[in-house]
């Protein structure tokens, strides 16, 4: 008899827990599967070279634009100087080509004038020779002069075309030299790697004197303004969660201190397997002995002015999301009764 009553009570308790759990989803979501994260960047050079100087040490706080490290600039300075010299030579060659075109144009004008005169003389003497006033020899000389003037004019035209082609070639060479100079100056500028945002340097082991290829990671920079919580919430709760809803959370770096935040966004998709595209987040639903419900990442804004107790990337967190209507955006207008 006692066992029967105990079984009934046990089943009733389980039923009440189930009902309570189902109802609670409409009011709040809780998870301890949460952690602090932030934006970060792997800082590496865009060009190869020897690491000449480190401008930061472990845990250094930097501002956007501050230098982080520098490579040996010597080969890049020489390349930039050589490129600048090539531009100067190309500019001079272009000017010579321009002068050549002007000279060729002048020669065309001069030979055209001589040709016109020779043509006029030949026509006049031809008319006079028919009247017997001019000898045939003189007409032959005028015809010869006309042929010579025609040949000189055609050579002048060809020379002008050649000078114009030379000008185009020199202009192209100058453009190429200018582009090579820009690349050399860009590479020189890339020997100093600067912070892309305000942040803090994570401890690193790179030492000066190392040779680095382009893309070799020297240090990691964590954003000081991108801290947030990623809470993996069971799929049964996500339908009730909206951006802007209030959140209470606790982080492991400040135990038993409760902070207020808000829902930033909810992932609309996750990967079901590690083999799927890494563009989607993957949350492992497995434990040692049971498969859990799927969980979806929910990003949560930290307090308006998060202190250093919250600013530890990777720290665990516990999150309680209240399923209330989110507050209206700041600055929205509200009607007032009259």
Order of helices and strands: HEEEEEHHEEEEEEEEE
**Beta content:** 15-25%
- Give the N-terminus to C-terminus distance in angstroms: 70 Å
Helix percent band: 25-40%
> pLDDT below 50 for ≥5 consecutive residues: which ranges?
331-338
* Number of E strands: 14
Describe the structure.
The protein has 338 residues and is of the alpha+beta class. It is built from three helices and 14 strands. It has helices at 2-24, 74-130, 136-189; strands at 28-37, 40-43, 49-54, 61-62, 67-71, 192-194, 199-201, 211-212, 219-223, 228-234, 246-251, 259-266, 295-301, 316-322. The strands form three sheets. It has a six-stranded antiparallel β-barrel with strand order 1-10-13-12-11-14. It has a four-stranded antiparallel sheet with strand order 2-9-7-4, with no helix packed on it. A hairpin with a 7-residue loop joins β11 (246-251) and β12. The two termini are 70 Å apart.
